[in-house]
Design goal:
Elements: H1 10-26, E1 33-41, E2 46-54
Antiparallel strand pairs: 1-2
Length: about 80
């Protein structure tokens, strides 16, 4: 999430969560739900950020069909 010590503002946290969402989308998890909660530790002046991820289904490619929409015929393939 690329957060460094001391970056606990809501804006920085939201940017980090958006980077995580983008990474999940890059991996095909377009419906992933990402949320975060903060747990303060007043005695040490530190705060934990707990991130919750519900990945959802991974996108998959089923069948690809190419059609020649031009006026030119498809060339004969040497594989035919």
């Amino acid at each position: 999430m690329q957060l460094t010590l001391g970056q606990t503002t809501a804006g920085r946290r939201n940017e980090a969560l958006e980077r995580l969402r983008e990474t999940l989308r890059d991996e095909g998890l377009y419906q992933a739900e990402v949320s975060a909660e903060t747990v303060p530790h007043p005695e040490t002046h530190q705060m934990d950020i707990v991130v919750h991820v519900k990945p959802g289904p991974r996108a998959r490619v089923g069948f690809i069909q190419l059609k020649n929409g031009t006026e030119y015929p498809m060339p004969k393939s040497s594989l035919d």
